[in-house]
Amino acid sequence: MSPPDPQLLRAARAHDFAAWDRLLKAHQLPLYTYIAELIRDDTAALDLVQETFASAVRHLATLRDDARFTSWLFGIAHQKCAQHFRRARRTDARFVDTSSLTPVSDDTSGSPASTDPLANIADPTVDDPLAQLLRREDASALFALVEQLPLPQRSVILLHILEDFPLEEIARITAAPLGTVKSRLHHAKRALRQLLTVPPPPTTPSPAAAPSANTTAS
């Protein structure tokens, strides 16, 4: 998302309710999509969007760089999601992040560990099932796969692919080191590719119809 109009933010800082209404309308759907896909609870997601904006209204004075308003807002939303999980005391195994076991290096000079697995996503000749899915913009299929990722990986992939945040901004949003964000993104993309290449389970053929009782033998 592009940053909001600086004049709009100045008006919001001056407690202009019309300005806040415009900011809400501009960010409501992206925030809801991120939160809903992260916590998998549509009703709670609506509540967390409202909590996010209420917190933003109270703490806008702490924002030092207006150009980062959107990532700052998503950072608040991310914190609200974390609080939601703590309240719910979730123990689902999917929320355990193991990506830090093999971290991706912060070095972006061209080493294999720092190469973006989707660097060729715009190249239609690359035979990559994940790239093909993203080019089709099949959101429902993508969300169905993302739902199966561990929570930290799910967060990073949603912010990177769905909201198009750069990795540095994702690190700020999730309060994680840049190397950890790169590692989570690397493992998330690899997991999504594996899910895409798993063949569907074989279908069980329906039982053959029993011969009719009044069928005569030839």
Protein model, in words:
Helix 7 packs across helix 9 and helix 8 (167-174) packs across helix 9. The protein has helices at 6-13, 17-39, 42-59, 69-88, 129-136, 139-146, 151-162, 167-174, 178-197. The chain is built from 9 helices and no strands. The longest helix has 23 residues, at 17-39. It has 2 domains: 6-90, Orthogonal Bundle (Rna Polymerase Sigma Factor, Chain: A); 120-197, Winged helix-like DNA-binding domain superfamily/Winged helix DNA-binding domain (Arc Repressor Mutant, subunit A, Orthogonal Bundle), CATH 1.10.10. One of its GO terms (biological process) is DNA-templated transcription initiation. This is RNA polymerase subunit sigma-24. One of its GO terms (molecular function) is sigma factor activity.
Write the layout of secondary structure elements.
Elements: H1 6-13, H2 17-39, H3 42-59, H4 69-88, H5 129-136, H6 139-146, H7 151-162, H8 167-174, H9 178-197
Helix pairs in contact: 1-2, 2-3, 2-4, 3-4, 4-8, 7-9, 8-9
